[in-house]
Amino acid sequence: MRGLMMDRPLLISSLIQYAAEYHGDTEIVTRTVEGPIHRYTYADAHARAKRLANALVRLGIGMSDRVATIGWNTYRHFELYYGISGIGAVMHTLNPRLFPDQLRYMVNHAEDKLVFLDLTFVPLAEKMAPLWPTVKHYIVLTDRAHMPPTALPNVLCYEELLAAEEAAFAWPLFDENTASSLCYTSGTTGNPKGSMYTHRSTVLHSMAACTANAIGLSVEDCVLPIVPMFHVNAWGTPYSAAFAGAKQVLPGTKLDGASICELIENEGVTIGLGVPTVWLGCLQYLEQTGKKLDTMKRVLSGGSAVPISMIKAFAEKHGVEFLQGWGMTEMSPLGTVSRLKHKHRLLDKDSQHAVRARQGIPICLVDCKVVSFDGKIAPHDGETRGELHVRGPWIVAGYYKDEPATKAALDSEGWFKTGDVVVIDPEGYVQIVDRSKDVIKSGGEWISSIDVENAVMAHPDVAEAAVIGLPHPKWDERPLLIVVKKPGREPQGSELLDFLSNKLAKWQLPDEVVFVAEIPHGGTGKILKTRLREMFREHRLPTA
Ligand code: ADP
């Protein structure tokens, strides 16, 4: 027997309609690319998204056409999220930090018809335009007064485009499995691969993100997504914030500690989302100025492992609950969040921090299995390692127009192979041991580069650290520890190894410590281990 419930499609346009109707006076505050702070409301955003919808139709954009954006976190980019997907077209967020060859590939592969771009990216687009033959118009996200002189072909001014349209538009109803947005992963090898989200996957992911087990976003909150809108849709915040009716603060181009902390203080931010590097910048700023984060309740950090020292500093110096999330572009991205369980309230503070330093418990509807290296399903014993495979309603079923990559990404039962090596402990917490390609294989044992990095990050003189495996005649590979010192500090290699000696087993200790001025980061803020391996290709360990 079938049930008797309404079959309403889950559509992205419902989110902005809801926010405008019931949270119409709730603010969206932006530090604009032009400079000043801009404020408006969900009602204003909705009206402008409808003008944009009219403009897109006038420019010939229809169902399933791909429309690219290269933009910072701003109110105009927020409008694009709704205007484009709302009419049934596909919002393709381009990550400007990727290499020109990847940008060339992505726009051609997606066959984007329009490119909306911030002022900052006009020079980039000018260089790329001859390589992007599918693009019919470039629309600069600014007003007439700020339009730059540009060699871009068929260039339009965003504010003029909107001003010419009516704010009346009826969002169309269509199948919830219609493609809504497209995001390519910045694979370090091979071509980028496209995750094509649907309206259904996006709405379900927003609902899950708002639950108290995940980000816990509600109408009481003011959320600051520092993670860029060009990186997995700012972890879904443009959608989940509207779902919750939460106030939003969008930081534009300024992501340094001082600018972020200023926004937090002035706007009463309660929840922030960003990668560990950004939070490190904030902590350093707070340390230097002696300022506090009075309004902040919670931080969600993800994208790479969070050192426990950071969790401790936020909790104990600023009273901020510092959560870690794990996920991937292919997972929209939320997979796990390191929430404490009820029983953990009895633990002492350090033990609580240790729970939060794990990647977390899977969110309901994200199914996880750990496949050990002999192909068996690993038990949740906190010890047996294997590759994490996942499935769920906001996880990709394949890559856009890429049969070989799709085949390689799915296991025989159709689960998505994450490439992360993990253990799951008896309490259900997933702990990332490493990327499968980054683990160091030393004499039949595996050394987790993440474990060593986390341990050394607790040293007061270390600003950043990375560990890679270098060839070794006896052990196959042995770890090299690469460290950036904190300004004004002069730690010695031997001192750091001493510091690690009571935190790691003897065979896990790096064979050598080298100091560098900077560690290279990729387009999404992650340490570029491939670059480090290239930089140290000729390097010989003293033990080799
Ligand atoms: P994002 O960086 O937004 O999470 P990507 O698709 O660029 O998405 O990268 C996903 C990969 O990032 C994961 O497979 C994992 O290796 C790594 N990652 C994400 N979150 C964490 C985390 N909390 N701890 C360790 N690694 C993480």
Descriptive overview:
- Helix 1 (12-22) packs antiparallel against helix 2 (42-58) and helix 12 crosses helix 13.
- It is globular, with a radius of gyration of 23 Å.
- Helices cover 30% and strands 24% of the residues.
- By secondary structure, the protein is an alpha/beta fold.
- The chain contains 17 helices and 25 strands.
- Strand 14 (321-327) and strand 15 (334-337) form a beta hairpin.
- Among the domains are: 9-24 and 38-199, ANL, N-terminal domain (Rossmann fold), CATH 3.40.50; 363-435, Luciferase, Domain 3 (Luciferase, domain 3), CATH 2.30.38.10; 440-535, GMP Synthetase, Chain A, domain 3 (2-Layer Sandwich).
- The N and C termini lie far apart (70 Å).
- Bound molecules: adenosine-5'-diphosphate.
- Adenosine-5'-diphosphate (ADP) is lined by residues 185, 231-232, 302-305, 324-329, 333, 359, 418-420, 432, 435, 524.
Q: Radius of gyration from the CA trace?
A: 23 Å
Tally of DSSP β-strands:
25
Shape: globular
Biggest sheet overview: 9 strands, mixed
What strand line-up does the widest sheet have?
2-1-11-10-12-13-14-15-16
What would the CATH topology of the domain at 9-24 and 38-199 be? Answer: Rossmann fold
For the record, the CATH architecture of the domain at 9-24 and 38-199 stands as: 3-Layer(aba) Sandwich
Report the CATH superfamily of the domain at 9-24 and 38-199. ANL, N-terminal domain
The structural class is alpha/beta
